[in-house]
Amino acid sequence: MSTGVGMSSCCLTGKVQEGTPKGHVETIAGLQTYVAEPKDGSKWKTVIFLVDIFGWEFKNTRLLADQYAEKGFTAYIPDVHEGDSLDIEFLQTVEPQKTERDARSLTEKATATAKTGATLGPWLLKHRESVARPLIESFIKQVRMIPGTNKVGVVGFCWGGRYAVLAGDKDFSGAEGMGVDAVYTCHPSLVAIPGDFEGLAVPASFALGDSDSLLGNKEVDQIKELMAKKKSEGIDTEVRVYEDQVHGFALRGDWNSEKDKKAMDESCKQGIDFFNKHLA
C-alpha cells in the first residue's frame, strides 16, 4: 500500500540568496523558460529543473541553474505553474527561518498554519498531476528535439521533486527515447511510497534531509530500500541523507549558516557529479 507523503508549512521556509542570475528567457513548448548556458553554448549535457512551489522566477533556483551552466550543462527552468507560483514573500511572512518560527507564540503559529492551509490547499488542487504532468512531458519532449541536445537529465525540488521521480518512469513520456536519461531529486513532497518509485527505469540520485518533516526516518528508509532494489536490477542509484537538514535545504538553506551552506554546496555537487556520470 502506498504511503502518501504530503506538504506542510515547512515547505515555505528558507532564505533568498544574493546574486544576479546570468541566463535569459525563452519560450519552449509554450512555457516561459529560464535558460542558463555554458560558455561554449553546448547542449550536449542538458538538465531540466522542476521547481518548488515558488516557481521558475525564484532567484535561488536560477542561481543554481547558473552553477550547472558553469560546469558545462545547459539548464532549463520552465514555468510549469503557468504564472501561478506562490509569492516569494511566503518565505518570510508565512513561514520564516526555523529559528524565528520556533520563537513564535502558539497564537502566531496557529495563525501561520491557517494561512498556509488556506493558500496551499487550493493551489495544490489547481496544479494537480493531471494538469502538471502533461506540461512537463511536453516540455521534455520539446527539449529533446532542440538541435545539439544529446542526453537530458531532470532535477526536482519539493513539489517538483515528485515529478523528477516520475520523469524517470519507463512510461512517463509515452514514447521510447523521449523521456530523460537520469534524475536527481532533492527533498521531494507529495510522493507516494512505493508507488511513485516502482516504475523508475533510469539512474536516480536523491538528496534528503534527516530533519525533513515531510520525509521522516521511516520514509527515508523505504526510499533507500527501493533504490537498493533498483541497483540490484542494474539501475545506478544513490541516496544521500544530509545531517540536520530540513525540507527545502538544497534550494533554500541559509548561507549565513556554515552547516546549511555546506549542505547546499554538497547537494549541488552531488547533482552535477551524478549528471556528469550519466549524461556525458
From TrEMBL:
Domain Dienelactone hydrolase: residue ranges: 32-278
Top-rank taxon, per record: Eukaryota
One GO MF term: hydrolase activity
UniProt cross-references to Gene3D superfamilies, sorted A to Z: alpha/beta hydrolase (3.40.50.1820)
Lineage start: Eukaryota, Fungi, Dikarya, Ascomycota, Pezizomycotina
SUPFAM superfamilies associated with the record: alpha/beta-Hydrolases
Protein name in UniProt: Dienelactone hydrolase domain-containing protein
